[in-house]
Amino acid sequence: MTRAQNRFLPLLLFPSLLAIFIFMVLPALWTIYVSFTDMALAGPKALNMTFIGLKNYVRLFSSEDFYHSVVLTLEYSIFTNIGQFVIGIAAALLISRRVFVGKNFLMAVIVLPMVIPGITQALIWSSMLGSQEFGTLNRLLGLINVAPVLWTQAFPMFSIVLVNLWNNSGFAMILFLAGLESIPQELLEAAQMDGASGWQQLLFIKLPLIRYMVLLWLLLNTIGCLGMFDLVYGLTRGGPGNATELLGIYVYNRGFRFYELGFGSAASLILIFMSLALSFLYLRLMRVELD
Amino acid sequence: MSTRNSLSRRQFLSTAAVVGGGAALAACAPAAATEKAAQDQSNTKAESPTATPAKKEIVHLKYLTADRELGRKVKEIAVDAFNAQMEKDGKPWRVDSVFGPATDNDYRAKLTVDAAASTIADIFDIYQTDLADFAAAGYLMDLRKYLEAWPEWGQIYDVLKPLGEFDGKLVGVPGGSTMTFFVRKDVLEKAGISTEQPKTWEEFYARCDQIKQKTDAKPVGIPGGTAWGGGSFEEGFKMVWLSFNGPIYDESDQKWVVSSPTLLKAFAVYEKLTKSGWLTVDELLATNPWEPIKYQEFPQGKCAIVTGGEWQWTFDWGPDGATPIEGLFEKVMRWEWPTEDGKPFTYVDGGVGTVISSKTVDAEGAFEFIKVQTSAEVGCKQLPIYIGGPSAFKDFANSCPDYKTIVNGKMYEASQLFGSGRVYSFNKVGLEKIADGIAKATEDIITQKKTAQEAMDSFAKDMIDILGPEKAKKL
Known about the structure:
By secondary structure, chain A is mainly α. Chain A has helices spanning 3-34, 55-61, 64-96, 103-111, 118-128, 136-143, 151-154, 156-181, 185-193, 198-209, 211-226, 230-235, 247-257, 261-290.
């Protein structure tokens, strides 16, 4: 790099750094500060917020509703990760086969939902899972004389996991496919010559060789699941009752429905720490894998 | 890495200073321009004897409402009438409609965020549950001096006036409706069950039992649980609570009473209805519980009793409503709320629909709009399109004779009840949280996870925790 270029570099960097500082660092610092106050969006505390120390955190950790949301969020993350992994790896294996007919169609079907905005997907699925005979799924069940099911009421967690599988399995498939395509063909051919069956190839060659991709997907997907909001808000709004009140919905409800911005900020920080903890764990595992 | 290629601290700071200085200059330029414009404007105002801008520059005021089809049509009538009137009178104000989300929760979230960010419209529609919190936060303009000087103010039913007040501020023109049970008279008569007003809860229970024994209908769908949101409190619990004549909010120390013998009795009503199998529990746990209860089962005669106000005659079961009931006025009748002392009551509910932001660009113009919006002339034009409740003005029928007969006279009848009905102003800080707590407590009861006593204990603990001991107490 020349001296002139060297002088020009900070000029190019500065706007981005300034934007990151203003739009990311400052709000994050502000959120941390607000979490130690009783700041509200309405009511008297909107005018006079006070510093209350750890009170919000104490209240949070003694709240049954909060623990309920944490458990739901973990359940949701586990179910969606398992489901997406199964669908993603199956689709990737099918598509990676050279002679698979309908390869492009399957790829399009799985990837298409990714381009639809989350809230629109939620509205589509609330029509699909509609109660009584109005829902599409119930109409289909009606064709085989099965009584209508109140999907989001009787199976709330299943409903939101199902929508997430439909929405995000494409992402898993793309990553796994990239991993599978990068496996040297000679390895698989050698295994075949040694008499390895399809399952053995999958379990002992393919999966171990794409484990880095799997961990990367797991990291990104878990972060996405922990912070999930739009799909669930659009579909159930956290209901019925608080059966699908994931942490993202919990934070929103506290902050914007009950105006408790300080308390909502504290809950959001816990959510961030959960994401960070899991991210560090995954990164550690990935580093081990790379090493 | 060579030092030549790296960015020295000195270089970084000098560049940052240059760019930062440039940014500051750029930011200051429009700010200075705005400041000057504001100064000019304030000078103009100061020279003028009234708040009307001297140069008759048009002042545009924004009016925010939820984007619902019928609501939109009636709002447009008011806005068009106002703009035409202002043009005719040579006044400088014009109102532009702005539409927010159609659903309650999303609209409320928008209002709150806009208000907190000081970007809220000059005039906006508000929910009653938010009124106290918005007023306490200083988001609403106190209109007392305007309203009390307005001749029409004397025509508003006195009973409704406190519903527009919070902490000494009068924040808008109140409206009202009456809340009662709505009963499928035809279903009861067919089964030989008395349709007479039950005076006590015991009589009400007896009627529910007969409905269960003698008909295929589910006896009662009182809102409860979290899925109905604020409606569990607004359309159900608060009247049940009032029916036991106990303290709800202690004005002397400004605290909500979150545990008391009367509150326990109110919770016990839900427990009794649930355990006896009279309540539409499954429906109350559905995502939108009003749909199976009010739009399906009640119109089909499969649920005999629901709660609500006058809007149900039009929006829910009227010819253009969600699920029209043929022969509505012959098939459906109303019961007042039974009480412990055998003196049933009609609850006069109400509040302020439209308010003015404390940050409005022109308070006088915004109030002028409120006057036009609530005028008999506009009300008369809106009548054929949408009428969700009785008029708050005593003389409305004189200016608009159709009012006496529209919706089979039900709206006029309701306004005649304003004088005799029971009123309680729930405009207190924390109402939204109380309503949420009640929704949770009633859900615990109807799902039989908790008894009435356990639900009240949890409710009290939660409320003292959330509102703080300075805003909630046990008796």
